[in-house]
Each structure stands twice: as structure tokens, then as C-alpha cells.
Amino acid sequence: MEKGKINKSSIGLMKGMIMILLGLGLLFYPGFTLVSVTRLVAVLLLVKGGMAGLILLLSRNQRSNPSMLLELFFDVGIGLLILYNPGGTISFFVVILAIWALIGGLLMAFSFNTLRKAGLTSWGLFLNSIIALSFGFVLIFEPLRGGMALATLIGAFALAYGIVNLLSVVFQKRA
Predict the structure, then answer these.
(1) Is there a contact between 106 and 87 (Cβ–Cβ < 8 Å)?
(2) pLDDT per residue over 24-33, tens digit each?
(3) Which of 3, 65, 152, 155 is deepest in the core (most CB within 10 A)?
């Protein structure tokens, strides 16, 4: 490998290490990590909005670009809103996820009922609808606890993903 070049295994190692760190953070410090990641997203939105503003300034002699102006206001506005209230943003996301789970659970229950009437029973579909509805109700009525539980699940996933990624890079090098 030439000096200064990044290869696939280096990227795989970095990705694995970042996922492991994120996973450990979410497992052991879920609230702090969620707020930190939320703030990072806010800063990225502010930078993106700032770049849109810079592009608008540099291209002011050309035709105006309304979509770029809209992007500027949207990114900066959402970024400032998230920075101002990261906990509210997390709760909002959890409530959106809860609504998705409730609607999905209801649709699965209706599908089960339709299949049952047609003589086709799918108890897996019925159980999945119960799980989705339960998950949705827990998230709606306890969004902060639900957010912590989600952080823990995402942390476990990120940790496992990072470990598998690192192992695949190590074993790929040996092969």
C-alpha cells in the first residue's frame, strides 16, 4: 500500500471502532449519548445551512435559487431548535416511532383478521401486531423511558455491528 492512501480495511477498522464506541456509549450512558448525538446532528445541520448560505452569497450574480434559500432557513432553523431543546427532539422522535408502531400494529391486526376470515391463520402476524401495539403504547406513555430503552437496543446493535466489522477486517487480512 502506498503511503498516504486509505484502503478498504482502514475504513472498515475506523467504522468498526466508531460503532463500538457509539455502542458502548449508548449502553452505559444512554441519556448523555443520545443528547450528544442529537447535538452533533444540530451542529451538522447548522454547518449545512451555513454552506447553503455561502453558496447563495457566492452565486448572488446568477439567478436566485429558492430551493437553496429554503434549505438555508430549514437547516438553520431545525439546527437551532435541536440545539435549544435536544431532549424535546429525542422525545419527538420517540413519539413518531410510537405512532409508527401503533399504526403498524393496527394494520397487522386487521391483516390477521382478514386472513383469519379467509381461512388462513398466521399466528406470527397476530403476535407481531400485539408486540408492535405494546411497543407503541409504552413509547407513547413513557417516551423518556422508551428513549432510554431504544438507546440501549441501538447501543447493543452498534456494539455487535462494530465487533463483527472489526473481526471481518481482521480475518479478511489473514485470508
Answers:
(1) no
(2) 998 999 888 8
(3) 155
